[in-house]
UniProtKB/TrEMBL annotation:
Alphabetized UniProt keyword annotations: Acyltransferase, Fatty acid biosynthesis, Fatty acid metabolism, Lipid biosynthesis, Lipid metabolism, Transferase
Highest taxon of the lineage: Eukaryota
Involved pathway(s): Lipid metabolism; fatty acid biosynthesis
SUPFAM superfamilies, per database record: Thiolase-like
GO molecular function, one term: 3-oxoacyl-[acyl-carrier-protein] synthase activity
Species of provenance: Massariosphaeria phaeospora
SMART domains documented for this protein: PKS_KS
Assigned protein family: Belongs to the thiolase-like superfamily. Beta-ketoacyl-ACP synthases family.
One Pfam family hit: ketoacyl-synt
A GO term from the CC aspect: mitochondrion
Signal peptide segment: none
Keyword Cell cycle set for record: no
Official protein name in the record: 3-oxoacyl-[acyl-carrier-protein] synthase
Length: 429
């Protein structure tokens, strides 16, 4: 099959707008989680009152102001998750230096951008408006704004890309699936270039209420938001909902080399699996994640011993982090693996940005690519005491401070409700 490489990156995250700003603040130990208690009266009555929100302010300060970032009319036509996808796509394309004009190049370029939930705000607000005022209170833009595939649709229309136009919606695995599936479209010759990733913006009282009723959210740190997301820590007790977008430009290797593109990494492997177990809870033995990682390495033609770093899905839930930790150790300490757990380098960047749901997999894949490109392991915030039980948490979790280390092979994991799992394997070229 054809080889696929990453040539462009774009980010909108709770740490700011843009790859450079987000990456710098991540490595410096900043946290984008804030209190939302005073954001709306409905938030004050919820058990979880913290969220990782894209900061609002001036564009020059790396913050979000729709009127500065978007074209006239975009804010009306596009839901917030689509707006984030558009801005991240523009950055990724600029970074890749790929803004084609010929019909041949436009037909060879596709878009694959998904979302886990889409525009919950539009659904809620329109439902209330319809209930109170009837048919005439429903906007003609209601359906186009809420459809998840409209992020990909708007990007393709903006830039004239006529290749595959696709969208995944696989809960919190969406971003990883989007990148992996897009890479396969290139491998099989359906496109030479793909703009791929995930976007999410559903910081809404109804969404938080739903996740809270499912007992998924952190509720004990409402007065200390920056400490709420604590992957792998023994005091972890739920995830923090977040928003943002992560978009990559994927390209067939020879196509990228021919035009002299900067290459960050190769998408060497992609593994998928299902827990086949429960709607929301993971299997305690982590067998689903184990299978996804095993398949990603098999696709890449690599042994477990070759893995230098894993960006974990680890959302800061008691069961999920333990299951993933077990899966990683079962894979990397098994046959053809590491000699001991201390050689396994794992971190979760959700301590800094919370859980971006459908955007998590793509944003964290970008962090993984940057770690590989710069030979640095991103840190895990709020990891004071690994464990529960502590004897099982004996890997290197890159607590508090980023670490310099040569990284040639890295995995990025994403798992979602419904038991869906994906693992992306990136390697240096």
């Amino acid at each position: 099959m054809r080889q696929v490489v990453v040539t462009g990156l774009g980010l909108v995250t709770p740490l700011g707008i843009g790859v450079r700003r987000t990456w710098r603040r991540l490595l410096d130990g900043h946290c984008g989680i804030v209190s939302i208690k005073d954001r709306d009266p409905h938030f004050a009555g919820l058990p979880s009152q913290v969220a990782a929100i894209v900061p609002e302010g001036k564009k020059d300060d790396g913050m979000w102001n729709a009127k500065e970032w978007l074209n006239p009319g975009d804010e009306r036509r596009m839901a917030r998750f689509t707006q984030y996808a558009m801005v991240a796509s523009q950055e990724a394309l600029d970074d890749a230096g790929w803004l084609p004009e010929t019909e041949e190049d436009l037909e060879a370029t596709g878009v694959y951008i998904g979302s886990g939930i889409g525009s919950l705000d539009d659904i809620y607000d329109t439902t209330v408006a319809f209930e109170n005022g009837g048919y005439r209170k429903v906007s003609p833009l209601f359906v186009p704004r809420l459809l998840i595939n409209l992020a990909a649709g708007h990007v393709s229309m903006r830039f004239g890309f006529k290749g595959p136009n696709h969208a995944a919606t696989t809960a919190c695995t969406t971003g990883a699936h989007s990148i992996g599936d897009a890479a396969r479209l290139i491998q099989f010759g359906d496109a030479d270039v793909m703009v791929a990733g995930g976007a999410e913006s559903c910081i809404h009282p109804l969404a938080i209420a739903g996740f809270a009723r499912a007992r998924s959210l952190a509720t004990d740190w409402n007065d200390n938001p920056t400490e709420a997301s604590r992957p792998f820590d023994r005091d972890r007790a739920g995830f923090v909902i977040g928003e943002g977008a992560g978009i990559v430009v994927l390209e067939e290797l020879e196509h990228a080399k021919k035009r002299g593109a900067k290459i960050y990494a190769q998408v060497a492997g992609y593994g998928l699996s299902s827990d086949a177990y429960h709607m929301t809870a993971p299997r305690e033995d982590g067998y689903g994640p184990f299978l996804a990682m095993k398949k990603a390495l098999r696709h890449a033609g690599l042994k477990p011993s070759a893995v230098d770093y894993i960006n974990a899905h680890a959302t800061s839930t008691t069961l999920g982090d333990a299951a993933e930790n077990r899966a990683i150790k079962d894979l990397l300490l098994g046959e053809d693996g590491k000699a001991n757990a201390a050689e396994i380098n794992i971190s979760s960047t959700k301590g800094a940005i919370g859980h971006l749901l459908g955007a998590a997999g793509s944003v964290e894949a970008i962090f993984t690519v940057l770690g590989l490109h710069h030979n640095v392991l991103p840190l895990t915030l709020n990891l004071n005491n690994p464990g529960n039980p502590p004897e099982n948490f004996n890997c290197n979790y890159v607590a508090h401070t980023a670490q310099q280390k040569e990284v040639k092979v890295a995995l990025s994991n994403s798992f979602g409700f419904g038991g869906t799992n994906a693992s992306l394997c990136f390697t240096k070229m």
